Amino acid sequence: xxxxxxxxxxxxxxxxxxxxxxxxxxxxxxxxxxxxxxxxxxxxxxxxxxxxxxxxxxxxxxxxxxxxxxxxxxxxxxxxxxxxxxxxxxxxxxxxxxxxxxxxxxxxxxxxxxxxxxxxxxxxxxxxxxxxxxxxxxxxxxxxxxxxxxxxxxxxxxxxxxxxxxxxxxxxxxx
Length: 175
Known about the structure:
The protein is of the alpha+beta class. Helices cover 41% and strands 20% of the residues. Strands 2-1-5-4-3 form a 5-stranded antiparallel sheet. Strand 1 and strand 2 form a beta hairpin. Helix 1 (4-17) runs antiparallel to helix 3 (102-138).
């Protein structure tokens, strides 16, 4: 996965842009914490709950025809919990005070989610490419050629002439 330091830097920049945030964490879609800045909150618990909520949100969006999951906002008495898609393999969850400007929370959360998604997806792509190269190097023999196909001569069969009955069923209308 992407470097924890890079993701943590993005979380801290997000908290600097939105001072009413009380915490932020990035987790893989498997529920493992990638990076967190959540003082006073158990990050593993929040990550596990995030993935559970993500599953419900994805099914809800699909069942209602709303397309792929983008974000989930929960408002409690004391503030907000917002979860954003972060590429194909991660989610971003932020905690905010009740007095946060919700528009700013949404805008900055989307931006941070996109940036974290870029970091995580780039790392995943690089890892997949490295695995493919390693597999290719482990088995450098070219694939065996398929035996040549045998061809048989094709012949045409004469067709019987078409007969017409005088009316064309496609264009005839009865009055």
